[in-house]
Amino acid sequence: MDAPVKLNTQTQPGEAVEQVLYEVRKKIYPRAVTGVFAAWRWFFVLATQAVFYGLPWLTWNDRQAVLFDLAARKFYIFGLVFWPQDIVYLTVLLIISAYSLFLFTAVAGRLWCGYACPQTVYTELFMWIERKVEGDRMARMKLDKQPFGARKFGLKATKHGLWILLALWTGFTFVGYFTPIRAQWGEVWSGALGPWQTFWILFYGFATYGNAGWMREQVCKYMCPYARFQGVMFDPNTLIITYDAQRGEPRGARSRSADHKAKGLGDCVDCGICVQVCPTGIDIRNGLQYECIGCAACIDGCNQVMAKMGYPKGLIRYSTEKAVKEHLPPDQILRRVFRPRVLVYTAILWAIIIAAAVTLYGRVPVKVDVIRDRASVVRDLDEPVAENVYRLQIMNTDESTREFTISASGLENMELISQPQPIRLEGASNRVVPVRVRVPREAVKPGSNHIEFTIQATEAARPDAQPLVVREKAAFVLQGRS
Fold this sequence. Notes:
This protein is an alpha+beta fold. Among the domains are: 36-230, no CATH class; 366-478, Immunoglobulin-like. The protein contains 16 helices and 15 strands. The strands form five sheets. The protein has a four-stranded antiparallel beta sheet with strand order 8-9-13-11, with no helix packed on it. The protein has a four-stranded antiparallel beta sheet with strand order 12-10-14-15, with no helix packed on it. Strand 3 and strand 4 (74-77) form a beta hairpin. Helix 1 (36-54) crosses helix 4 (118-134) and helix 2 (87-108) packs antiparallel against helix 16 (340-361).
């Protein structure tokens, strides 16, 4: 925990008072712990990192399965190709993420922070390396107090070397989501890595090394905004990590064979294990604090002590403020989880997910933008035929080669002049097709007239398949005579 700031209040009249606004950090040495929640935490660490490190190496249709190609402005996610015009799907994804966070927080507090947040995940990985190299809590504390020598230098250098390798691999993988990772790997070994790739690999590597290796709990306590506004999402029926003070107090040390009830003691043996295993260094016995990330390490540590003492487990447990106050049994706690607030969050979340899935499933893999050439609205006012020029940007948003035919309607005796049709377009590509629309002057009124372009698309490999039809409205402008 951070050392409390002490202010010198004994000053003479007129003497300036110096007030320290920053608390000096006291290094935390989290102790290793095993148990149900530690196993769940490692499950999510391994699962999330298997996805993160492995996903960019997968291939799909002879390309990287997941690639956010910013240069080409195309995002590939397995069989889907997203373009800048599909920004609505990113918006929906952010909304789903926000509602999921609201839902999980309302149900069981900071589940995201305790099990899946990148800061938690990489801190867990870095602490695992630290324990393997330097030992557990007491060994690390003893090592830090020793004078600097060959052994200490060797252990520290090994630890930081492994940290840097993991951090650089993390930065390399992250950049691999935006640059084809296999080509990037070859460029690393050949020394041909570009300056921007090098910068971002080093940048994200440094951020991982600094946040997970050095700053750790400081990120959660001072940099993360979620720690500050999480309280507004809690209510008395939210599952949080709680210490049962009525059962544990008054706390005190005792032998395993002692009758602590006869001595007037509670179940808490005041061993401090709950503090020693906490990655943010708080004492959960002081009540819920914003520094608590909900990792449940204190529950595992306390349960181990209770088992050794022969006491019932659960002195520190997941419970609710209302349940602790009213001594509610587990079945009533579970029933109160499905309260109106949670049901509303769940209903809204599933409605958005289903709507997004249906929209994505029914997405037409052809997009068309029509741009009228304003510099060439009409060719010649003295000619019997008026002509407007348009540019049709046709986007083939999937990976099948398609052939397109273009037609126009909306005015009598319209004539469409374009390049030879059908127009062949490779998968995940786009082309600007200039077209001219001619209309007899007597068939159109001066000003803006509504017309419609129809674009039919069929797969080149299956010309007999049902064609896709996209219709886009446009304006045909005829200038009046002055």
